[in-house]
Specification:
The chain has 259 residues and is of the alpha/beta class. Helix content is 41%, strand content 17%. Strands 2-1-3-6-7 form a five-stranded parallel sheet, with helices on both faces. Strands 4-5 form a two-stranded antiparallel ribbon. The longest helix is centred in the last third of the chain and has 22 residues. The radius of gyration is 20 Å and the shape is globular. The relative contact order is 0.17.
Length: 259
């Protein structure tokens, strides 16, 4: 008989907790591989503040065009509602590696094996990043296009938080189910050369479909993609940037109007 993977994680976390003492994992979730989340502009903790997680995947600081447009989204959301912004600079802040210790801690948790102190610590660090991710009602990302894709630190962040029982569940018959429901996302992309309808020799955009697919995989289906491009090969970038800022403001106001 095939194993019941829908309850595998929770069942084995319970075994691990009973044998060796709890050190964090999926058992605190509501039911097998399920969790409840608040709607996009409402929190479930008694606070009126909308929690925004801003993921900055750019290295360019105040010169970042994607950052400027992302800040416009946040500014607009804050103009009509109380917001609490958690800013995560993926290059500058402490982002844990999903390394051998983290994987070892995860597998020990799932199988009921004894984890080493280093594995426990690594998994707790991963869990702390996920908790920041899970606490948000709205995600705002600014993403430069690197080699037609996303910067490596953003992929690292995705690999850290995308864990079974946290962001997704699995059923042997129905497949994967996203658990981060009721949330919204705004993703701002900047590219120096590539832009929509450009000839093939001028690059490709693998970032937009990848992030769109990832958000939907974890249960976030209300996603706004905003592009500010091209930033370099552009005789009138001022107009391009103004259009992107206007789009960011308009899409943020649409969310406010729908709340």
């Amino acid at each position: 008989m095939a194993p019941d993977w829908s309850t595998f994680a929770v069942r084995n976390v319970a075994v691990r907790d009973a044998r060796h003492g709890r050190y964090g994992g999926c058992a605190r979730r509501e039911g097998p591989w399920r969790r409840s989340t608040p709607s996009a502009l409402h929190t479930g903790n008694g606070s009126n503040d909308v929690k925004i997680l801003h993921l900055n995947a750019s290295t360019r600081g105040p010169q970042s065009e994607s950052l400027a447009v992302a800040q416009k989204v946040i500014e607009t959301l804050g103009s009509a509602s109380q917001i609490e912004v958690d800013s995560f600079d993926l290059f500058g802040d402490d982002l844990p590696a999903f390394d051998a210790d983290a994987v070892g801690g995860k597998m020990a948790l799932f199988t009921g094996a004894e984890a080493t102190p280093a594995q426990k610590q690594a998994w707790e660090t991963v869990k702390a990043v996920f908790e920041r991710f899970a606490a948000a009602d709205v995600y705002v990302l600014n993403v430069p296009l690197w080699n037609n894709g996303i910067p490596y630190v953003l992929k690292q962040f995705i690999d850290v938080v995308t864990q079974p029982g946290w962001t997704f569940g699995f059923d042997m018959e129905k497949g994967y189910t996203g658990l981060m429901t009721g949330k919204r996302a705004f993703v701002v992309y900047a590219s120096g050369v590539y832009h929509e309808n450009v000839p093939a020799n001028f690059g490709s955009d693998f970032a937009t479909p990848y992030l769109d697919d990832w958000f939907k995989f974890i249960g976030v289906h209300d996603i706004e993609h905003i592009h500010v491009a091209p930033t370099v090969v552009n005789a009138d970038f001022a107009s391009t940037k103004a259009a992107a800022l206007a789009e960011a403001e308009a899409k943020a106001k649409q969310l406010l109007a729908a709340a």
